[in-house]
Structures are given as C-alpha cells and as structure tokens.
Amino acid sequence: MSVNDALARPVTHRVQKGLSPHPRIRNVIAIGSGKGGVGKSTTSVNLALALKALGARVGVLDADIYGPSVPAMLGLSGRPESPDNKSIEPMRAFGVEAMSIGFLVEQDSPMIWRGPMATSALTQLFNDTRWGDLDYLLIDLPPGTGDIQLTLAQKIPVAGAVIVTTPQEIATLDARKALKMFEKVEVPVLGIVENMAVHTCSNCGHAEHLFGEGGGQRIAEQYGVPLLGSLPLDIRIREQGDVGTPVVEAAPESAAAQAYLAAARRMVEELGKRPRAGIPIVSSLI
Ligand SMILES: Nc1ncnc2c1ncn2[C@@H]1O[C@H](COP(=O)(O)OP(=O)(O)O)[C@@H](O)[C@H]1O
Ligand SMILES: [Mg+2]
Ligand SMILES: [Zn+2]
Question: Which residue from 192, 176, 65 is spatially nearest to 118, judged by alpha carbons?
C-alpha cells in the first residue's frame, strides 16, 4: 500500500495493552520533547496541517499545561462550546479540529496545576470532546516526562509518539530521556523530528548548519528510530506561527512547508509498519 493510500484510508493501529482505540479516532499520535521551546507546538500544528493537505481528517489536542499555544498558532480565539454541559465541541481552523487544555483554565488565573487536576483534564478533553471521525489526532504534550505523560501512557490509546528535538537538546540528554520514557511505557516511537538545525537566510535563502550537521541522524541511529524530518530555523515559521497561520497553510510551496509535508509522509509510513489494532472477538456471536 502506498503512503497516499495509507493517508486516505489509514487503518487503526495497535494501542497499549489493556486499552481500546477511541471509537472515532483511528490513530492518536503523541508529540513529545525533552525540553520546552524546541518547537513542539509549531511542529504539531504544521504536521497536522500537512496531514490534512495530504487528504487526512485531523485533530490536534493541546495538552501542554505549561504553555498551551495551539489555539493561538491556529488563529483561534474564544472558547469551545458545550451544548449539553457534558461534552465539548472541538474548535476548527483550516479544516483541522482543535482542543486545548488552556480552555479549561480561566484566562487570567495563574496556571497552578496539581498533578491530578492536569491529568484528569487530559482524559476529559480526550474523551469528552465531540471529535469528528478522525484519521489522526496529534497530542501536543508538555515537555519532559511527568504526570501527563504517565496518564497518556495509562489512559489514552496511543498508536505512536514523535519526539521533537533541537541540536542543542541532542547535545544534552533531554531528548533521550523522552525517548526512553516512551519505550518504557510501551508507546512506540515513530521517529524524531529535528528542529532548527539549519538556518535559512531570508535574503538569499542559503542554508547554514548552526550546530554542525547530522545530530538528528546520529541520535536516530543510536536509538534505532527513524529521523522523520529536519526543519530549518526559518523566520517565516516563527512569524506565521505568531500570526496564527502556520507556514504549511500560509506558504505551502515553501521549503519549510515541504519539509513538514515530507515529515508527515514519513511518519505515516512508519505508522504503517506497526501492527493494526485487533478486531475484538464478540463471544456471544460464536
Ligand atoms: N523551525 C523554526 N524556525 C523558526 N522559529 C521556530 C521554529 N520552530 C519553532 N520556532 C519558534 O520557536 C518558538 C518556540 O516554539 P514552540 O513551538 O512554541 O515550542 P514548544 O512547543 O516546544 O515550547 C516559537 O516562537 C516558534 O515560533
Ligand atoms: Mg508548546
Ligand atoms: Zn544570505
């Protein structure tokens, strides 16, 4: 099956033992990082828009309690509606569904989250959002390896994880810690996205490796996971994120957008190698 077929009609892939896939979401993919500020949210929204551009039905769940930024990056304002006071309507931007943990917090109140509050907020958003039929739901996790990641591993049926890292982070051990954590909780790491390794000059477009070449490739090889893509440090990626129209939407022909599209294809390809979810046996019919 080609990548495009897989995109148009992806199967539901296996999730953690003891959990069943969400009834309307085929594949949940967690986007993690060791540290904040590496571009995890930017990568999440652009990968989501890339998957949509490739023909998939996509949602993004912003679970970063430390800095929920997905709504702003998608140009969303206001709050989601809850017609029955139980379930929540996802918000929509550029044909993608979105929900954020930030909506559960009062705008001006300080973000003091105790573990249980944050983790119940995640499961609530996942279960109580009226997601449409989705091929992919990307979850933008908080950085690091805390309570939210543990809850995700135990309660959210995930098909795989993607680690976003910068060259600086590769030099430290943070990205490796995130990798190890997913391994430990048996969520397969589909691959690594290396961000801000190469600077693209906005005048002449020439590329400059700020930290030497090949860091992402090295860590990928060392841990036996694929390098899904390498994103340039590109001022348009930041500017378009700031104004709420991510680069994949604002400039689909740009090198940056093409790099996100390639990473999305590669991610789907890796997911396609994973076993599909088992078809439950209904014993009463036998
Ligand atoms: N490839 C990139 N090129 C330029 N700026 C980037 C790139 N990736 C992220 N940024 C910028 O870096 C900052 C941090 O990115 P963000 O996605 O919010 O990180 P995280 O979610 O990991 O904390 C943002 O201002 C974002 O616009
Ligand atoms: Mg973020
Ligand atoms: Zn130049």
Answer: 65
Instruction: Report the atom number in ligand 1 closest to the C-alpha of 35.
Output: 22
Residue 184 pLDDT exceeds 90 = no
- β-bridge mates for residue 100, sequence order: 62
Q: Determine the distance separating the centroid of ligand 2 and the alpha carbon of 78, expressed in angstroms.
A: 19
CA distance 170 to 21: 32
Q: Hey, where are the domains in the chain?
A: 3-274
Interatomic CA distance for residues 116 and 230, integer angstroms: 35
Evaluated on CA atoms 37, 42, 44, 45, the torsion sign reads: positive
Radius of gyration of the chain (CA): 18
Residue 44 pLDDT exceeds 60: yes
**286 confidence band (pLDDT: 50, 70, 90):** very low
For 136-169, how does the pLDDT look when each residue is reduced to its tens digit (9 = 90+)? 999 999 998 888 888 999 999 999 999 999 887 7
pLDDT digits (tens, 9 = 90+) for 219-234: 888 888 999 999 989 9
| Ligand 1 contact, 257 CB (< 6 A) | no
Distance 63 CA to ligand 2 centre (A): 9
With respect to CATH, is domain 3-274 assigned 3.40.50.300? yes
